[in-house]
Amino acid sequence: MTLPPLDFAAYEATPPTAYDGDPIWRTRMFRMASYLSARCATDASLLGSRVSLQVSQQFVRAVASIAANLAEGYSRGATHDRARFYTYALGSLRETLAWIDALGETPWAPRAEYRDLLIQIRRQLLTAIKAMRPMMGERSATRGARRPITYPSRKSES
User: Strand, helix or coil at 66?
Assistant: First the structure.
């Protein structure tokens, strides 16, 4: 397997053969997720014995899941299906950020690049999911729009 270039700009400029001519490549969040997915196994190996093999493998699976769910969601015709897979991608993205935070102070050179790209993907995913809600018949969630939950009062049992 050939690794992608070390920087995202070079990877983005030359799509992998699998995506040549595919409209999904026009989606920036997918390009970023695909780049991280292609790099993560090698980058995780840089951690060496400083983290357990289980943590390293879980991190790699979470990163790969972002790109996979974006690709599957992009290919869905129904808006609610697309939103569901984009929500799965968002969950995997948050899991990835949690694994990066779990590394603590462990030295890891690509940490800043991963965080930066993941935060950009998260912003784009949240925007896309929010835009899909009206198409699915849902009202857009706005801050402060939720009503407090009211509970029926219990009558004391005598």
Answer: helix
Q: Mind listing the pLDDT tens digit for each residue in 107-124?
A: 888 889 999 999 999 999
Nearest CA to 29 out of 79, 73, 95, 60 is that of 73
Q: Are 115 and 97 in contact (CB under 8 A)?
A: yes
Q: Copy the structure tokens of residue 150.
A: 């009211």
Query: Could you give the 3-state DSSP secondary structure of residue 141?
Result: coil
Q: What is the dihedral of CA 1, 73, 96, 63, to 10 degrees?
A: 0
Determine the pLDDT at residue 71: 93
| The model's pTM | 0.79
Q: Residue 75 in contact with residue 157, Cβ under 8 Å?
A: no
In sequence order, which ranges of the chain are alpha helices (DSSP H)? 8-13, 28-45, 53-74, 79-102, 111-132
Contact partners, residue 95, CB within 8 Å, separation at least 6: 62, 65
From the list 58, 83, 61, the residue with the least C-alpha distance to 72 is 83
Domains plus CATH for the chain? 8-136 (1.20.1440.60)
Could you say which DSSP state residue 77 is in? Answer: S
Which two three-digit tokens encode residue 10?
């070079």
